[in-house]
Known about the structure:
Blueprint: H1 7-14, H2 18-21, E1 32-37, H3 39-42, H4 46-57, E2 64-69, H5 75-80, H6 82-86, E3 93-96, H7 113-136, E4 142-147, H8 166-184, E5 187-190, H9 192-203, H10 221-234, E6 243-248, E7 253-258, E8 260-268, E9 271-278, H11 307-311, E10 314-319, E11 324-329, E12 332-338, H12 339-344, E13 346-347, H13 355-388, H14 399-408, H15 413-425, H16 428-448, E14 454-460
Parallel strand pairs: 1-2, 1-3, 3-4, 4-5, 6-10
Antiparallel strand pairs: 6-7, 8-9, 9-14, 10-13, 11-12, 11-14
Helix pairs in contact: 4-10, 4-13, 7-8, 13-15, 13-16, 14-15
Amino acid sequence: MKRIISVLSVFVTLGLSISAAQTVTPFEDDDRAVFLGNSITDGGHYHSYIWLYYMTRFPYMNLEVYNAGIGGNTAGDMYERLDGDVFGKRPTVLMVTFGMNDTGYIEYNGDDAAGFGERKYRECKRNFEKIEKRLLGLKGARIVMIGSSPYDETAMIEGNTPLKGKQQVMDRVVAFQKESAERNGWEFVDFSRPLREITEREQARDSSFTLTMGDRIHPDNDGHMVMAYLFLKAQGFAGLKVADMEINAVEGSVSRAENCTVSAIGKDRRGISFDYLANSLPYPMDTVSRGFGSKRPQSGAKELVPFVEEMNQEILKVTGLEGEYKLYIDDEFIGIWDGEELGAGINLAEITWTPQYQQALEVMFLNEWRWEIERNFRDYAWMQYGFLKPRGLLDANDRRAVEAIDEGKAKDIWAGIHRDNYSKLMHDNVRKARLDEIKLLQDRMYEINKPVVHRISIRKK
Length: 461
């Protein structure tokens, strides 16, 4: 029988207070979470990292997450594609973020930086007010405003002169986003201030530090993981463990089993063994830099925020042992710890070669593959809304569209870059086949993310 474990029931079971830490309602079973944004969303990973958390922490929950970002977009651009590209995804939860492109660029180093910033701010606010009216009429979806990740004005980056004053205007955009959320009863998460605090802390040690890929704009994979952490923390997940078990080796009994089941305990003169079934999988951290222009992996976020300490604890504690012991899971050698260390507890979620971590890695790699295909569709959407719609060719998907791209690609480098992708996805059957691939990957992820029983053995060395 399928076991459905809701986020709420987990909180209740663990005795945690949702309202004390939570500012954004956790996603629910059958939610369709859509992230609307610019290139930071379009080419970024924070939404896929959030989904991966749900797939590993709540493996019996059915959730779908959609990328609705397009590179270069302002709030005005997002308004123009709400119906076809955003509402068409039928969101039950819609995250909205913008501001980086709205606030402009090189003019901050011109003669009228203050005047330019004021004009861009007012333009952005006018465009958002149009979005706001549409969102107020959107039925069946709750809205979460996200204050944009910041522009890094302070990193010492060779060959990249910072745009002084841009972040100040972005701060004003975040402020009216928050005001709108409060006025309309929406939810709000701020990425800007926490990311800047991290940046200031790290730059005090290394002036060249940046959470971006070196362009001052786009967070790298570690930055996106920090953003995912901030979002999940706003949803109240700090303190929610993968599992927490304590075994009394002297008595051969279970002292604690949190979010897991421990059974079939056996002990002899060499040690103790038992069956372990968790309700969750550990959260896997990618150690490879992925995505266009990225330089750093997701796992680097562990050095920046306490994600592991707050949200990725799979604790094994065994009391009453003396001397050194070998730990096996399903006959797989995991490592050696002494009785004192085992009595204090070890975090299995940090050990990448456990069977459960390897299972979670399979989910992560399938999710990454899904992300890559979805990115093809985002490039297709850029072509539709950023290039073809202004030419009256939205959804033309024919020779006229390709001819327009070929005619305009000399002046628009991105049109040339996305031309091949568009020429494939313009065909209905190609799009359907690619969507089938995504569906196949999603189905497989939800098949393999279910925890299984493991036999843990702790044997005297």
